[in-house]
Amino acid sequence: MRCVGLLLLVSFSVCLAARGHYAQQLFRDLFVNYTSALRPVENTEQAINVTLQVTLSQIIDMVWMDSFLTWSKDDYDGLESIRLPSRYVWKPDIVLYNSADDEFSSSIETNVALRSDGQLTWDQPSITKSSCSVDVAFFPFDLQQCVLTFGSWTHNGNQMDLNIELDSAEMADLVPNVEWQVLGMPAKKNVILYGCCSDPYPDITFTLQLKRRASFYIFNLLLPCMMISFLAPLGFYLPAESGEKVSLGVTVLLALTVFQLLVAESMPPSESVPLIGKYYIATMTMVTASTALTIFIMNLHHCGPEARPVPGWVRVLVLQYLNRVCLVYDLGETCAQPEDQAAGGANTSLSDEESSKHSDEVLLTVESAILQNGGRSRERAQEEANEDQSSENKMSGVEMHGEERLQNGGSSVPSGVEGLSGRRKSVDCVDKQKEAPASCCHCGRHLCPGIRGYAPLDRLRGDVSSIADTFQEQREAQALMTDWRRVGRVLDRGLMWLFFIMVFIMSVLILGKSI
Question: Where in or outside the cell (predicted)?
Fold first, then answer.
């Protein structure tokens, strides 16, 4: 058995040596009168057909027929194909028309496969650099199409015809890229007729379709911008007394400016404005407008007493309709409050008639206090009158006795009785005061004797009127400032909802491009 195995091994080695001997003989026979400088065709008017195929694993496949490199397999012990250096055979001068390589030709000299029927296959490894027009209008959700045009550098269509093996490039060995996703690479044959000559010039164009992977830009540029932009409407929700409304808008604007600079650094210079750039510009414009409107509303909130009253159309539009739409109510006011109460509560300024009535009420209160003090004086006067009355009753008998004495020729009235008779007048005055109507003490013109010791009521009435007018002016000024503050509060709430809707719509539109 060992002898048989050794015999088979020796026979196989002899066959391989014989096959190698035939290959060398074939090479000498094929290239004895062969030149690689001329097209391998028997008829110069005949076009040589070259089949081109591109693989995205850096390989350009070309297949053509060489009529001078054929042999019979039987003459060379059944040898069907051989591999030989590409420099020995004629090769088609197919190049990349839109190449951006410095050396223009970066192909490596590799072997070609030659079959007995004259078919040559050249798998050329090549790294090509092509010029490509980049459109960043929809950055970072952009689709790029890079064109690779292959054709003969010196031969026209009558001398060399190009064919496509497949409708698209092979992507089986494609290595995925972290930034770009390859959607496809369709191929198309073009025949161009130039004005200089009538000969056609065929070429094969491969269109590389690329889609940018936008996850990096969404999480690092878009989402932070969206979250910052949602802070801009909240500036309208801040109380005007906080003093941070304008500062918030300026801070948001500065943050968006920083992100705008990052976007400018991450994209190539281009004439067209990218989509994310438009989004940033729109957001910055919105923040600028919100800051300007905030300054305007702050001016309304801090209106002083010298400001004009709220116009009627503003009162109706803002304080009666817009506040209900924006759900803005005063303290103690609800959404179910009747319209007449809401309208009445809106008009906080007092009329002249109400002001006069209020002043009269104040004056009556002061005069009542005066009358109470005057009443105490009248009581003391009444007590004195009662004492005088009792003294008079006691002396009445003396008077009658004196009269009888006068009638009978007696002595005259004593001198002490004349003093008592003089005090009678004050008693009569008090009686008249009791009988006088109460209005005599309110008119300010005829004062009763009981309050003659007080200051003149006319001067007191003027002082009270001055105080009441001052209070009324303060109330009207406060009501005026309150109205303007209510207008500013309603505008704040309305603009907040408006800008929230604008930010939401812009965010939906920008994210909708990524789907």
Answer: Synaptic cell membrane
